[in-house]
């Protein structure tokens, strides 16, 4: 029930159509190794009524008719598509098809080409999202988080990248109440603000949080009564010049991991807060202390200069601070596992 290779497709197609379908699939799979990140799905895909997994569909190269037929895959549980280069008309057809997939548990929509004129804003017109979604990954410019995301009461994993969200309040308003959200990863270009505060009562079941490559973010704050189940925080490619505030508000915290270019103000203070935490969490560093420490002065949000926001710092001077910070030796494989788990 998985469409990954052409050989799995052909037994389910009428024998008289085998030559044509096999030829199309062979061409699609061969071109998979070109610049395209997905495959062209042939017309007739709607006949596969028992198909459960379909990935990765290149919407640009797939015909409008075949895109429409995706909505006929009534047993589909996992769908992954790339829309870069696709017309708005095809994206609208895809939107209609997605709304018909009532059994869908996992949806991934990618548009990696920022500035190409093609965005994911067509997702805002969804009125009836798949009600049983447990995993949602959106990589592309949305402008705002679609309101329907807040209705996904079964959602467990959410990853958002390149969405260019400008208002912090909308993030908490839509995502904060999700009752079953456990894994949240905010990736490259998701948010353009300097401060991200997790509000009281929000994210009641969140366990893993990943903050990756938010170039303008300066402060990560956890207010009293937020994220009571949060156990792991992973930060990379961010410079938190105002630090991580409110670690002591997270009763179930087990680990804070700073990955590549994950840098915070006054690392020694963060370490002391971790050491004093009643749940005995650990602070894990992927590199030497000097690579993660922005220094002893905690800047207020808005004070950071362009020079201090560089994510490619020069090596630290040999005579730097001698304050000791307890770290756990972490392999790159361990940190990659942590990153992918968020």
Automatic annotation (TrEMBL):
Q: Which Gene3D superfamilies match?
A: Ribonuclease Inhibitor (3.80.10.10)
- InterPro entries the record matches: LRR_dom_sf (IPR032675), LRR_R13L4/SHOC2-like (IPR055414)
Q: Does the keyword Repeat apply?
A: yes
Annotated keywords: Repeat
Location of region: Disordered: 302-326
Q: Does the keyword Repeat apply?
A: yes
Pfam families reported in the protein's UniProt record: LRR_14
Every Disease resistance R13L4/SHOC-2-like LRR domain range: 37-283
Name of the protein in its database record: Disease resistance R13L4/SHOC-2-like LRR domain-containing protein
């Amino acid at each position: 029930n998985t469409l990954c290779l052409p050989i799995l497709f052909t037994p389910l197609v009428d024998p008289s159509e085998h030559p044509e379908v096999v030829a199309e699939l062979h061409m699609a799979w061969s071109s998979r190794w070109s610049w395209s990140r997905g495959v062209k799905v042939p017309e007739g895909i709607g006949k596969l009524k028992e198909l459960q997994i379909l990935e990765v569909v290149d919407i640009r190269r797939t015909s409008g008719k075949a895109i429409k037929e995706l909505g006929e895959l009534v047993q589909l549980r996992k769908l992954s598509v790339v829309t870069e280069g696709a017309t708005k008309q095809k994206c609208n057809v895809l939107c209609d098809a997605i709304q018909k997939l009532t059994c869908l548990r996992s949806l991934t929509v990618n548009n990696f080409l920022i500035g190409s004129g093609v965005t994911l804003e067509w997702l805002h017109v969804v009125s009836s999202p798949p009600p049983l979604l447990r995993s949602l990954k959106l990589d592309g410019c949305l402008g705002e988080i679609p309101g329907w995301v807040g209705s996904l009461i079964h959602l467990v994993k959410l990853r958002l990248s390149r969405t260019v969200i400008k208002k912090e309040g909308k993030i908490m308003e839509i995502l904060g109440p999700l009752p079953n959200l456990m894994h949240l990863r905010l990736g490259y270009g998701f948010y353009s603000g300097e401060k991200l505060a997790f509000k009281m009562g929000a994210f009641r079941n969140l366990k893993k949080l990943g903050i990756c490559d938010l170039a303008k973010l300066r402060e990560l704050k956890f207010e009293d009564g937020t994220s009571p189940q949060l156990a792991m925080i992973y930060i990379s490619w961010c410079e938190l010049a105002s630090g991580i505030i409110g670690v002591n508000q997270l009763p179930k915290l087990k680990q804070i991991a700073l990955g590549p270019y994950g840098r915070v103000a006054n690392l020694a203070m963060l370490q002391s807060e971790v050491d004093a935490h009643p749940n005995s969490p650990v602070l894990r560093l992927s590199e030497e202390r000097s690579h993660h420490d922005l220094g002893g002065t905690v800047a207020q949000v808005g004070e950071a200069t362009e020079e201090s926001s560089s994510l490619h710092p020069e090596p630290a001077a040999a005579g730097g601070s001698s304050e000791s910070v307890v770290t756990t030796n972490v392999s790159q494989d361990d940190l990659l596992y942590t990153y992918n788990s968020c």
